[in-house]
Amino acid sequence: MLGGRPEDIVFTSGGTEANNMVIHTACRHFHDSQRGLGDSRGIPHIVTSSVEHDSIRLPLEQLGREGLAEATFVPVSPRSGQAEVDDVLAAIQPNTCLVSLMLANNETGVIMPVAELSQRICALNRRRAAEALPRILVHTDAAQMIGKGRVDVQELGVDYLTIVGHKFHGPRIGALYIRSPGTTTPLHPMLFGGGQERSFRPGTENTPMIAGLGQAAELVNKNWEAYEAHMRDVRDYLEATLEASFGKQRICFNSHFKGSKRLCNTCNFSILGSGLQGRRVLAHCKVLLASVGAACHSEKGDRPSPVLLSCGIPPEVAQNALRLSVGRGTTRADVDRAVQDLVQAVQELERDQAP
């Protein structure tokens, strides 16, 4: 599915563990590479974007509090919704050991320039080696992209890639791609035990889940182009139906950035008007279940999504945001039903607010 080799895969409990494992490895590798050098370069430095999943952001913040690593969170461009390659490279320091950039954002669907970034860092690493500076490892969290677009590790040129089963109709298990683990690319275990997964991730493997992940990957490998075409068709129909139902002036698409590619399944939009916060609209829906941002951040209350704010979406627009995703089985009839439900929810809220 990824264009890698069987020995490049280590199974994990999910994306969170895989992402933490990469950060742990990069810090360990930094210290190993600096051992024996007269001028210690202090603590490891990691560069990432301001819109990453919490399983990247929170470990980095924790390491910072403990004084074990420092991190730079590069803001995305309000023009493109992307972390621009030049901005990421500008954040690199002599003690940088890892750059982690998600392949596609889970809220806006914007696809990040990971392949270009890898190429530039590869060239930079050649110069750094001559100066005895630590190698910069490159990681991408591909959770959102797999099953919705082409993912090829040779094209991407990354050292690590995170795989999350339930994002492509597999079971709730994950895996980590590592380019020749332990030889070409370092990999340090976070756990120690019975030696499973070549001791990179010990603990008895969850064999039924792994088999399910393999089956889901096989389906993606055979059908991803058909899946992508279907989801894009239904998503575009959803956006056209929202505009037709509410009027162009009342719908703001938060995931449309000129010149940027985006996932085929994601629609992030706001229905403009006072009292139409995303959470309130959803509470008045009868059949539609959706999210106002990332599903894992549902405890954040009515505060606007930090991802949308960092993309330059005004707070009054961002607080009305809804994120709808279509899937392999979503039909145009489903879209009609969902939009009708949104229309009645908004009418109800506006009726309640009328003097």
Automatic annotation (TrEMBL):
Enzyme category, top tier: lyase
Swiss-Prot/TrEMBL cofactor(s): pyridoxal 5'-phosphate
Keyword flag Cytoplasm: yes
GO cellular component terms, A-Z: cytosol
UniProt entry keywords in alphabetical sequence: Cytoplasm, Lyase, Pyridoxal phosphate, Transferase
Main location: cytoplasm
UniProt EC number: 4.4.1.16
Subcellular location: Cytoplasm, Cytosol
Cited SUPFAM superfamilies: PLP-dependent transferases (SSF53383)
GO molecular function: selenocysteine lyase activity; transferase activity
Positions of the Aminotransferase class V domain: 4-337
Pfam families: Aminotran_5
Family of the protein in this entry: Belongs to the class-V pyridoxal-phosphate-dependent aminotransferase family.
Record note on quaternary structure: Homodimer.
Protein name: Selenocysteine lyase
Gene behind this protein: SCLY
